[in-house]
Inverse folding.
């Protein structure tokens, strides 16, 4: 009885090995993980391991130290950016709003799209379709402005590389800390 069981197992071994190899090759592209971002001012669920980079950017006539925490999956980019406001801007509500407006407008400019009037509000979902280099692209984003910081969440890619559901899942996962 045991010998017949072993013969059957031996006969099925190549099939079992093939199934195991197929399962190993089918690893999911999206491997969600929640982390703190924006110096602890927010939490976000990223679909892959993140990288961060910091650089100076010009925005609305101001030089900002902008830190981007991002992940890439199948050609789509998921990022949370943050920039502490310069003290003079932080102290002036109109200057803060001008900077937030410039960031929202830049999302449209990056895809060579015309921004709507009025612009979407802070925390609202922004969807932009346009040109990313030589090919059509799109993004979904949200922008927040606090008394001390400018924060944005962006999912960007092509229609093929970025399913709308994944963009929404990412952008909606970003929660500011009070």
């Amino acid at each position: 009885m045991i010998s017949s069981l072993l013969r059957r197992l031996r006969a099925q071994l190549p099939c079992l090995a093939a199934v195991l190899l197929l399962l190993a090759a089918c690893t999911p592209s999206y491997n969600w993980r929640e982390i703190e971002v924006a110096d602890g001012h927010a939490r976000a669920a990223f679909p892959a391991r993140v990288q961060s980079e910091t650089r100076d950017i010009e925005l609305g006539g101001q030089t900002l130290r902008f830190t981007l925490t991002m992940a890439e999956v199948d050609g789509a980019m998921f990022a949370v950016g943050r920039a502490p406001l310069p003290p003079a801007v932080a102290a002036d509500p109109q200057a803060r709003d001008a900077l937030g407006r410039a960031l929202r407008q830049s999302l449209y400019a990056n895809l060579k799209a015309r921004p709507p009037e009025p612009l979407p509000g802070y925390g609202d979902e922004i969807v932009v379709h346009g040109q990313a280099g030589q090919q059509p692209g799109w993004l979904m984003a949200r922008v927040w402005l606090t008394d001390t910081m400018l924060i944005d969440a962006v999912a960007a890619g092509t229609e093929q590389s970025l399913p709308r559901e994944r963009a929404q899942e990412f952008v909606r996962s970003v929660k500011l800390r009070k």
In short: Residues 2-25 form the longest helix (24 residues). The longest strand covers residues 62-73. Helices lie at 2-25, 87-90, 93-110, 164-173. DSSP finds four helices and nine strands in the chain.
